[in-house]
Every structure is written in structure tokens, then in C-alpha cells.
Amino acid sequence: MFQSPLSSSFDSSSHPSYQVRVRGAMYLWGSDDMAPKTFDSPLLLHVRNNVFGQAVTLATVISGASTTLGTLQPGQCYTIAIQGMSGVTATCTTESAVDCLIQTHS
User: Fold this and answer.
1) Closest by alpha carbon to 87, among 18, 37, 21, 20?
2) What is the mean pLDDT of residues 71-97?
3) CA pair distance 11, 30, nearest whole angstrom
4) What three-state secondary structure class fits 9?
5) What is the DSSP letter of 11?
6) What is the CATH number of the domain that holds 88?
7) Domain-located, residue 4
8) Which one is predicted more confidently, 4 or 78?
9) Strand boundaries in the chain, DSSP class E
């Protein structure tokens, strides 16, 4: 799969990164069955929608309740502070690949 040069930050060996193929609703981080998680130092989830993908809608989940954050168009990025939540979801009506990178807030 081709990625634009803007994705090089997601190739870091010092921060966990991964790609999720989003079809319908998928968890990018966490689960609806998990208790909300609090960290000593908030983690940042950097999300980037593939430049050749489709629009995805992001939402946070806290104790089963979902709150929509908005829609990422192809090639767009967003950062979410993972603090006090159960998960982060992405929803796509067709299919898109979403790159994720987890980093500590310092």
C-alpha cells in the first residue's frame, strides 16, 4: 500500500504504531467492554486517514457511550488525548486504512 511522504512520522521505532483497516465501525484503541482507563501521563493517539482511503468518522467511547468527534477526509490527521475513556472508534461506509501512533504526552 502506498503512503504519502507525510506518513514518515508513523514509521517511528520509538513509538508504537499500527494500521487498522476500517470497514463499518472498528476500534482504533480500546473496547466497549473495558473500564475507562486513566494514565499517570495522558497518552496521545495520533490518527491519520490514508490519502487513497475514504472518509472516516471518529468517536470516543466512555463506559459504552459514544461521542462523535468528527470526520477525517483522506490524508487528514487528528490527535486524541486518551485519558478517562474506554476506546476510540472509526467508522467508514466503504473501506479505509487508518494509521495510528501512540505517544506519551510530555
Assistant:
1) 37
2) 95
3) 22
4) helix
5) G
6) 2.60.120.10
7) no
8) 78
9) 17-30, 43-49, 56-62, 65-72, 77-82, 87-104
Residue 71: which domain range? 17-104
Q: Please give the average per-residue pLDDT across 21-44, as a whole number.
A: 88
* Pick from 11, 85, 73, 16: nearest CA to 48: 73
- Degrees, nearest 5: CA angle 4-55-103: 60
Enumerate residues 6+ apart whose C-beta is below 8 A from 68.
Answer: 57, 58, 59
CB atoms within 10 A of CB 38: 10
Is 8 within the bounds of a domain? no
Confirm if 45 and 88 have CB atoms less than 8 A apart.
yes
Give 5's pLDDT tier (boundaries 50, 70, 90). very low
Any domain includes 42: yes
Within-domain flag for 100 = yes
User: What is the DSSP-derived secondary structure letter of residue 76?
Assistant: -
Q: Does the predicted TM-score (pTM) go above 0.85? A: no
